[in-house]
Amino acid sequence: MDGLEMTRRLLEARPDLKVLIVSVLEGGPVPRRLLAAGAMGYVSKARRQHGRAAVREVAAGHRAIWTTRWARVLFETTPFDQLSLRQLEVALLMVQGKRNGEIALELDLTESTIRTVQAKVMAVCRPASRWRGWRWTAD
C-alpha cells in the first residue's frame, strides 16, 4: 500500500485525523494528490529541518507545505495529473529503475498488463523517448 492509499484509508476511518506526509518526492503529481486526498501537510525529506514546525502547524489544523517546489506542488499541472493511480504507480516504479518483471511482481500484475499501462502513460505524457518521459516524472 502506498502513501496515497494509506492516507485515503486513514481519513476514511478517522476523518478527524490530521495527516502529515514526509517524503523524498518534492514535486509532481504525488504531493498534490496526497493533499487532495486530505493530508494536511507535506514535508520533503530535503527540508526535514522544517519537520517540527510542520507537525505544530498540522496539529493546530493548518496546512503545512515545505518543499523546495511548494508553489509547483500546489499550482502547476503536468500531464501526469491525468494519469490514473495505477498508471502513476507504474511510472514511479520505472523512475526507480525497476524493470517490467519487477514492477509486475511488486504490483501483483502480469508483465503484459504492465506493458499496457506503460503504453497508456506514454500516450498521455507524450515524451520524446521512453526514458526522457520517466526522467521527467522524477523531476
Overall shape: elongated
Order of helices and strands: HEHEHEHHHHH
List segments where confidence is low: pLDDT < 50 over at least 5 consecutive residues: 131-139
Instruction: Report helical residue fraction.
Output: 55-70%
Content of β-strand? 5-15%
Major sheet details = 3 strands, parallel
Number of E strands: 3
Average pLDDT score: 79
Identify the strand order in the major beta sheet: 1-2-3
Count of alpha and pi helical runs: 8
Class from helix and strand fractions: mainly alpha
First-residue to last-residue Cα separation: 23 Å
> How much is the radius of gyration in Å?
16 Å
Give keywords.
elongated; 139 residues; disordered C terminus; mainly alpha; 3-stranded parallel β-sheet
Describe this structure in words.
The two termini are 23 Å apart. The chain has helices at 3-13, 29-36, 51-59, 70-75, 85-95, 100-107, 111-125, 130-138; strands at residues 20-23, 41-44, 64-66. The longest helix has 15 residues, at 111-125. 55% of the residues lie in helices and 8% in strands. Helix 5 crosses helix 7, helix 5 packs across helix 8 and helix 6 (100-107) packs across helix 7 (111-125). The protein has a three-stranded parallel sheet, with helices on both faces. By secondary structure, it is mainly α. The chain is built from eight helices and three strands. The protein is elongated and about 45 Å long.
Secondary-structure blueprint of this entry?
Elements (H helix, E strand, L loop, with lengths): L2 H11 L6 E4 L5 H8 L4 E4 L6 H9 L4 E3 L3 H6 L9 H11 L4 H8 L3 H15 L4 H9 L1
Helix pairs in contact: 5-7, 5-8, 6-7
